[in-house]
Every structure is written in structure tokens, then in C-alpha cells.
Amino acid sequence: MRIVDCSLRATVKTFLRLWALTSTLPWPTWVVDHAGRVLSPVKGVSQGAVELPRCTATLYSPPAIDSDRCVLYLHGGAFMVGGRHLHRNMIGRITERVSAPVLAVDYRKMPKHTISEAIEDCIGGYLYLLERGIPADRITIMGDSAGGYLSLVLGSVLQDNGLPQPGAIVVMSPLTDLDHSDKLAAPTNCALFPSSAVIAFTQLMSRRAGGRLISPVHANLTDFPPTLLHVGRREYLYPDSVLMAKRLRSAGRVCHLHTWDTAVHVFQAAGHTPEAVHALDRIVDFVDQHVPRALSRRAL
């Protein structure tokens, strides 16, 4: 993990410092997703294109499907990057380990689109699964970073609109509190986010909200599904997971918070490192507990 930490500091964190100085320029953010081409897809996992009402999605299918459960995956990338390539290796490993299809939503992104539109697309992905006969309690909503925010907001929106809740929610290094003032004031040794980029990102989010944005930590959590949070203790967003876990437990909900002392932001994407393997093991255990395998087999 130390090699990953140093690599991020030398590359991504340096790039984010530059972006913060020029964040109002028309950056070709779509190019970043193509960096994921260097990460080879997982052997035996197939991918198929899916058309949602306002965006596309990718359906990942493992070599063997052992039950009728499914995962809805919402990728991270600061609501600006990612989609087809950047997360395909990690999603491939998830679908292989849970032996179930994963629908990854390529939601509309900033700065061209608003965060409210991204939330609409995530709802569209969830409804797509329901319309194809997947019971809500057989669905796990999963996401990382900004996708973790979208996963938690989706749970809140479903609850507020009387729609059935998923069987579980799993989030990795999620954004849960849109108020960054305390986090910016606190000392941090995050390998990824410089404070200048956080400030620029917050300003961009305010401009491209598309309506009143929800901080999951302030949402109604009375009927929230079992939730698993993963985060590294040195991350800028570490306080967000701690506060989210506190709010869920105060609401009487099932919540597991797993932390790692030296892990970087979304370290689960770091292939076969011991920390990433261990984290995926714990994710699979959590999904198995709350959305068990032992039901009829089916494919989307």
C-alpha cells in the first residue's frame, strides 16, 4: 500500500493541484476514464451495454451465477470522471466474488450536467432492475467516493418516495457531508486530495447542483437498509464515514464501519494488494449476510 500511496501523491494529487488552479477551464474530463484501459478486465467476466432512460450502463456478468441477487454499482470520480474503463477491473472482481450480475450506471456528469441529473440516472438504474423482476431485497447498492454519496442519497430518495429499499448498501470512502469546513480545518495526510482541490470542487458542486442537494448524514434514516462503510483513517473523507455510521446507529439501523490505518482513498481498486483483497472479502461477507445466495438462479 505504501507504493500506491506514493504513486498517488506524485501523480493524481499533483494533477488535482493543477486542476484547482484552472477548474473553470473546459477540461476534457472524459479523457480520464480512458486511463482505466491499462487495467485489464477480469477474465471470464462478460460485459454488455444497457440503455437507461437518460444514460447508458454496463452489465457485468460472472462466469457462474448462483442466485437471483444483483448489484447496482455507482462509480466514483468526483461526479466528473469514470464510467466505462476506470472501474471495470474492480467491478469485475466484485461480480466474480459475489457470483451475481452488476449493473454499473454511467450517470451524467459535471460540469456539463448537474448532480441532480446524476441522481436521476441512478434511480433509473435501480428501476431498471426492478422492472426486470429483481426483488428490491435482492439488490445491493454499492459505490465508491462520489458514487458512495450517490448510493446513500439513492437509499434516502427511495425511502422518501415510498419505493422499496434494497437489501443492503455498501460504500467505500464515501462523501456523506457536503459541509467541508470542519474537514478543511482538520489536519490530514490524505494521499489524494489537496485542500485547494476540495475548495474548487465544492464551488463547482454549488454551481452544478441542479436543485437542493442532500447530505446523507442529514437525511431521514429511519428505514435505511443494512449499510457497510469502508474508509482509510488518513483519508480526507474519513470523518464523513465516521459521522454517517454514528447517524445510522442513532437511527437504530444496522451499520458496520471498517477502517484501515494506512489505506488510501478507494484502496479496494488496488488489485491484489493484501488490503484490497481483505476489504473485498469483508464486502462479500456482508452481502452474503444480508442478501444471501440461497435462492433461485437467474440472469438479467
Average pLDDT over all residues: 85
Number of helices: 9
Find the CATH topology. Answer: Rossmann fold
Q: Tell the overall outline.
A: globular
The strand order across the widest sheet is: 1-2-4-3-5-6-7-8
In whole angstroms, the N-to-C terminal distance is 36 Å
Indicate the proportion of strand residues: 15-25%
Low-confidence stretches are none
How is the topology of this model organized?
Elements: H1 2-10, H2 12-21, E1 46-51, E2 56-61, E3 70-74, H3 88-98, E4 102-106, H4 115-131, E5 139-144, H5 146-160, E6 168-172, H6 181-185, H7 195-207, E7 227-232, H8 238-250, E8 255-260, H9 274-290
Parallel strand pairs: 3-4, 3-5, 5-6, 6-7, 7-8
Antiparallel strand pairs: 1-2, 2-4
Explain what this protein looks like in three dimensions.
- The chain has 300 residues and is an alpha/beta fold.
- Helix content is 37%, strand content 15%.
- The protein contains 9 helices and 8 strands.
- It has helices at residues 2-10, 12-21, 88-98, 115-131, 146-160, 181-185, 195-207, 238-250, 274-290, and strands at 46-51, 56-61, 70-74, 102-106, 139-144, 168-172, 227-232, 255-260.
- An 8-stranded mixed β-sheet has the order 1-2-4-3-5-6-7-8, sandwiched between helices.
- The longest helix has 17 residues, at 115-131.
- It is globular.
- It starts with a helix and ends in a 10-residue tail after the last helix.
